[in-house]
Amino acid sequence: MSFPKRTLIKEALKTAPGAQVTVAGWVKTMRLSKGGFGFIMLNDGSSQASVQVVADKALPNYEAEVSRLLAGASVLVRGELVASQGRGQSVEIKASEVSVLGKADETFPIQPKKHTLEFLREVAHLRPRTNLFGAVARVRNEVSRAVHGFFQDEGFLYTNTPIITASDCEGAGQMFRVSTLDPEKPPRGADGKIDYSQDFFSKQAFLTVSGQLAGETYACGLGKIYTFGPTFRAENSNTPRHLAEFWMVEPEAAFYDLDDDADLAERFLKHVLRSVLERCPEDMAFLAERNDPTLVETLKHIVETPFVRLSYTEAVKLLMESGKKFEFPVTWGIEEAGRRDELSRQDQGVLHAPKRRRRRTRR
């Protein structure tokens, strides 16, 4: 079938009553009334909000299809926006047509209730339909938009650095190896070691841990560049601070000193957080309600408060004088894991950390 021009549900909810709209989406809930009406909560992923569709029993397919809709079904709805009689939204759709595109039965895994993350891992192909993953996806989209917008406005050039590389620019932890050799019977040299000269690249290759080295070469010819892409770390540490795969922003600039770097970092963080707060208020409110009631206020505080800058020595002294008990004693030169959280609550940036504790080299 050919699809007519459709209105996103997030736009329909902003439209005044009286307009004719066509929307398409997935059924969140379906409720039948004794008066011969069906009330469909429909979501298309454009926002956290769903629109209520009122389907009259006079519809030709009401008994055969509409009244039997269950959570997960996909439908296309034509109708008129009317003032909503219920709470939560100003308009609803009085349907003149409800076309069922895809049916769902009682076994559909995503039901209108809170699901655990463990359960959602078992149905990963359906979890984007949940409120949680929808919110995360929309926030990540806005973060990406804000990242590119900030650096473009600052005069940085976006560069793509290799994902497959022979370089380990971080010099710490393990890297994911990329190979076409048979893992059961790899070729070996006279010394008994694997002969990578017979591999795809004739040498060892890995997934990148950082675009830094390539970025630095571009910065030394183009002035100001940034990379933004996937990064891989084979660090088998099951902590909230370690990920096997994540996206990383790496700006590199020629003729920048430490103050320039700090100024850029502060402007960047505030720009991204401000964009998310302004453009994703519903999703941020949902994430705050589900995970951390202080989330929105914390981010607002970061946006509105100037960052305090202090040296590594000053930071260690601040922690030692905090009166708090740490799992590992605070001493000058100790790994800073876990300490940054204490400082970040006050929007403080630590400068001049010991070189042996820094993985990256700053010019």
Q: Low-confidence segments, ≥5 residues, pLDDT <50?
A: 356-363
Work out the number of β strands: 13
Distance between the termini: 59 Å
Percent in strands: 15-25%
Shape descriptor: globular
Strand order of the largest sheet: 1-2-3-5-4
Could you say how many structural domains there are in total? 2
Report a brief summary of the structure.
By secondary structure, the chain is α+β, with helices and mostly antiparallel strands.
Notable traits:
about 375 residues; alpha+beta; OB fold (Dihydrolipoamide Acetyltransferase, E2P); BirA Bifunctional Protein, domain 2; 3-stranded mixed sheet; 9 helices; globular; disordered C terminus
Describe the secondary structure blueprint for this structure.
Layout: H1 9-12, E1 20-32, E2 37-43, E3 51-56, E4 74-83, E5 91-102, H2 117-122, H3 131-153, E6 157-158, E7 164-165, E8 177-178, E9 205-207, H4 212-222, E10 224-232, E11 245-253, H5 258-279, H6 281-290, H7 295-304, E12 308-311, H8 312-320, H9 339-344, E13 348-351
Parallel strand pairs: 3-5, 6-10, 12-13
Antiparallel strand pairs: 1-2, 1-4, 2-3, 4-5, 7-9, 8-9, 10-11
Helix pairs in contact: 3-5, 3-6, 5-7
Q: Can you walk through the features of this model?
A:
The protein is α+β, with helices and mostly antiparallel strands and 363 residues long. It folds into two domains: 94 residues, OB fold (Dihydrolipoamide Acetyltransferase, E2P) (Beta Barrel), CATH 2.40.50.140; 174 residues, BirA Bifunctional Protein, domain 2 (2-Layer Sandwich), CATH 3.30.930. The chain contains nine helices and 13 strands. The strands form four sheets. A five-stranded mixed β-barrel has the order 1-2-3-5-4. Strands 6-10-11 form a three-stranded mixed sheet. It is globular and about 80 Å long. It starts with 8 loop residues before the first helix and ends in a 12-residue tail after the last strand. The C terminus is likely disordered.
